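Handout, section B. The chain below has 296 residues.
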Amino acid sequence: MHWPPRRILVGTDFSDSALAALRAAAALARRIGASIDLVHALPETPAAIVGFEPLDALLSGPVDPSALRARAIERMEALAREVAPDSMRLHVVQGAPDTELVALRGRLDSDLIALGAGALRGLRRLLLGSVAERVLRRPGAPLLLVESAPPAGEFKKIVVAQNDPGVATPWLELALRLAHDERSEVLVVHVVRGPQDGAKSRHVSLEPEHAAAQLSGLLARLAPTVPARVDVRRGDPAHEIVAAARADGAHLVVMGGERNRTGWPGRIADAVAHAGLPALLVVWPESESIEDFDEA
């Protein structure tokens, strides 16, 4: 994992949330000097438009492939002129959008992927499925899912979901680096679960006071200059993380995408991704890789 990212891959289907993801990524890229690769996936055949295409395209019937490509390039060039004219490369690919995105992620050695999160819920998801949802199940570079762009394009209020109060996880470290770069406030949320919830001592602290002290000490060591607070809660992490983010007015939630028995990204991250928060950054443990996914 490389942070700050040098190269950001942004997928677009020209939806509102995809535009929000592009704007958030472009604002971040400008501040840290990263480049952007904007990609749009065309269907393999006109009759097989799925997932990444707008719903109206699915219902409009067969379209000439060359016309589709020309229209996509025209719209992408317009986005580039509007959002980031100096640091954006355009890619029009053909095939299943999630597969093409993951492949391009590897070929370009992307440090971050940004996608709109609007299709994670509602009718569009039921009819077409969600590319963001499928990419979320393919570990690799950190994945930024954006529902709505933050004010002025800056993530000024960041919530970090930290499962172990005494360990510097990749997502906590990344969130603190981002907060330092953005001059942001950080709220670190740790949820205490009882043994009935399957908690293991190596993952959680069962004493809230002890967890708060551990987290405060960890933050003081990792990022003493970043304004950071600690919120230790009891209950279901999937619910409490979302509740804490909404109560704090968070622009961004950062959390790990650890695997559970049913696969990636795990129940908690999956639930948070579908909660409709403004933005979520999922960071994979260093041990997880696409090779592991392919063998599972």
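Note. The radius of gyration is 19 Å. Compare this with the example in section A.
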